[in-house]
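Thread: sanity check for a docking pose with zinc ion

Original post by kr_44:
Hi all, I'm comparing my docking run against an independent structure prediction. Below are the sequence and the ligand SMILES. Could someone generate the full complex and paste the structure tokens? I mainly care about where the ligand ends up relative to the chain.
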Amino acid sequence: MASLFDLLLPSCCLFCSKLSARICNDCSGECGLDPRLVFRDGLVGFSASSYTDQAKQLLRSFKELGESSLGAFLAERMKPLLTCFDEPPTCLVPVPSNALSLRERGFNPAEIIARELCRSLNGISYQNLLARTRQTKDQSRLSPGQRAENQLNSMMAKVGCERVILIDDVITTGSTLKTASKTLENSGHKVIGFLTFAETESKGCILTTQAKSPDDGGTSWN
Ligand SMILES: [Zn+2]
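Reply from moderator J.T.:
Ran it for you. Here is the predicted complex with zinc ion included:
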């Protein structure tokens, strides 16, 4: 469903301001097509892009300026990477926002992305298996050590035995995703890996032969 933002403003490209779809064809071909295999301290996953200026602008509009409809574009870029995991998930699990961010934004960015990813996945839904147990600080102002401490024991999970791919908008040190993974595994689930739109510290191995295009995005896990 279009957001109020979409309804009130004539559509122009986020990047080049041309009157067009919100991301025009020319700019669309350059954004979020830099897939990478990402490792963070025992956790493995994929990101659709490095943290380019375009990725930063896109995520800022999506998260901080309330343009939640951009979640569909992010998900389109991430979706081909779902087939890169060794086994299919039974569900996608968005990383939960903390209460203050949720109140300020009115939505959880990771949940919007997970919902968009599931739109065309047969039989796979997203589930909010995780919740925050306390308020965490803004990670962007913390050192790697402080980030890990900030996230420690900050989540709880519903008990179950799902095979989970964790969904978030970005990965930096991985401390949030590691906490999410540990919390899910302590509650009986198996975490296959994570999928994010961007990797903000480029340590990932760039994927050159597969999943470069949304058109390659099959979901068969054959
Ligand atoms: Zn453009």
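The pocket of zinc ion is lined by residues 13, 15-16, 18, 24, 26-27 (CB under 6 Å). Hope that helps with the comparison, let us know if your pose agrees.
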